[in-house]
Predict the structure.
Amino acid sequence: MSDKFFVLDTNVLLHNSDAITCFADNTVVLPMTVIEELDKFKKNNDELGRNARHVIRTLDSLRVRGSLGKGVRTEAGGIVRITMEKEEAEGTCIDLNIPDNRIIATAFNLLQQGKRVIFVSKDINARLKADAMGIEVADFEKEKTDFDQLYTGWRRLETDAATISRLHQGKGLLMATEEFQPNEFILLVDAANEKHTSIGRAVDGHNLKPLNPAYESAWNLHPRSMEQRVALELLMDPEIALVSLIGQAGTGKTLLALAAGLANTLKGSRYEKLLVSRPVIPLGRDIGYLPGTKDEKMKLWMQPIFDNLSYLMGLTNGGKQNEATELGITRLLREGQIELEALTYIRGRSISRQYVIIDEAQNLTPHEVKTIISRAGEGTKMVLTGDPEQIDNPYLDASSNGLTYTVERLKGQESCGHITLTRSERSHLSSLAAEYL
């Protein structure tokens, strides 16, 4: 028998359906309460339901090999066991009528038997209760990144004036002593004069090229900062299939993505349509709870997107957002050039030759993001935007959400690019709120 006993909370299995095989040669313990809770989710048509069904099928395949009550060894070398014992927690005051407490009680009983027990849960409150009872606790760490050390997509590098001048002249620049990520942007700063700068884009580990002047603007929208300029470079480049943008409110990530999408779809005709979506928390929840007809439900749910579209359409009308602007948006929606879709319905689709924007992607799990990106067909470009510091999903944080996981995992791919925007451009008041509140 292995040294460690990992007692898994239900939310771990609903978050990652392969979790029972992620603990090497240790013992994974599933209290009967967990099995009962999975049974409640298995009929759902959302991501939680799919994960519950996958876990149940995995357990059923293990059952064929032996008794889950005694423990069955997995291909990874570990043991999976379903506990049948009555949950008790003598000497504590926890209410065993609460399912979470019964799961914690199972861990407590194993601890009383002298086992080295680790209670694994995505629920912070459950971990706090278990810790108070003397049980070692842990979050589910697989598919987790270090948000504080997350790849930003650009960095500053001091050099001499001659090097900067060579880049300004439009020539490629070889920097043999540096190591770059593909599509990383380098702000070259003259060590003798900080105002003398130039921006280069890495084409491989050592070579930089100047920015493409054709990407200076999109749909009459001009970048207001260096960060927005390099983000636009990625958003407009047809060779980049996946772009991720991270930033606080007001940094312009959604506005830039929509401007580039409109420019490439309506003006450039590179893509057949612009598809925009954002998750409703949880992902599988339908929009049916919103009032009104289907179109009215969609407009309420997608109002932040409509606000940005109105602003952008107004730029083609001298900056005026009037009735003609609204009619223009309605016409584009009616003709199918812009499509607003619920993420719930993306699974199973094959999306070809479309410019796809997934807003608020920080509220998706790594598996959900994988599901969405895998829908991309030939000629499709995917853009993920979000703020990992504003997460509504109770089981995700800045380090475990699908957006930051995607950034870290795909940062070395030549067809992918990422930019972290830090400067708020919405208004002075917005920047104050982002910095001080």
Summary: The longest strand covers residues 193-202. The chain is about 35% helix and 20% strand. The domain at 219-436 is CATH 3.40.50.300 (Rossmann fold).
